[in-house]
Amino acid sequence: MRTSFLYLYNFLNIFLPDTKFFKFKVFILKLAGADLGQNVRICSSAKILGNGKLAIGNNTWIGHECLIICSSNITIGSNVDIAPRVYIGTGTHIVDINSKNIAGAGISKDVVIGEGCWIGVNSTILPGVSIEEKVIVAAGSVVTKDILTLNLVGGVPAKLINKII
User: Fold this and answer.
1) Which residues pair with residue 112 across a beta bridge?
2) Which pTM value belongs to this model?
3) How many whole angstroms separate alpha carbon 113 and alpha carbon 131?
4) How would you list the strands of the sheet with 124-125, edge to edge?
5) Active site residue 64
6) How confident is the model over 68-115, as pLDDT tens digits?
7) Are 137 and 98 in contact (CB under 8 A)?
8) Which residues pair with 67 in a beta bridge?
9) Rounded distance, CA 71 to CA 92, Å?
10) Of these residues, 93, 110, 138, 142, which one is catalytic?
11) Chain segment 29-76, per-residue pLDDT in tens
12) Cα angle at 133 between 135 and 25, to 5 degrees?
């Protein structure tokens, strides 16, 4: 994405009501290079950073104070609900025990959130994770590995709580 337009997007959001002007916000994000579907609603307090590729499907909601840091690809499907204060990031480090600091070289890993998912408040989606369709991530969870379709997961790290069907 074009970081200068992302800067403009995040700056303008300071002055916009959280749950208004969704089409204007989508317009600026599209100028930044994001691929956004119809009826995408992103709260103004949500921050989107990075120079990777962001794709969001139709009828998706991004809640208050979410943080999306995109250094590679983030794909969010259609009909997804992301609650407030969710973190989604693609950047991490290789563990390097021979270095002065354990966080070695930086790397980026794609994140995919499938259609119809519901990500609970204060959850964290770590780099390299793929969440399949219609998954519920319970509030406060840390998703560290892939999650299969129609599951309810929760905890730190997130584990299967129940099958939805």
Assistant:
1) 75, 130
2) 0.95
3) 5
4) 47-49, 67-69, 87-89, 124-125, 142-143
5) no
6) 999 999 999 999 999 999 999 999 999 999 888 899 999 999 999 999
7) no
8) 47, 87
9) 10
10) 93
11) 999 999 999 999 999 999 999 999 999 999 999 999 999 999 999 999
12) 90
Q: At what angle do helices 3-13 and 22-31 cross, to 10 degrees?
A: 160
- Between CA 150 and CA 55 the distance in angstroms is 22
Strands of the 136-137 sheet, one edge to the other: 41-42, 61-62, 81-82, 118-119, 136-137, 151-154, 159-163
Q: If phi over 0 gives left and psi between -120 and 50 gives alpha, with beta otherwise, what is residue 59?
A: left
**DSSP count for the chain of H helices, then E strands:** 2, 19
Query: How far is residue 24's CA from residue 153's CA, in Å, rounded to a whole number?
Result: 34
Cis bond before residue 84 (omega within 30° of 0): no
Delineate the domains of the chain, giving CATH numbers in brackets.
3-163 (2.160.10.10)
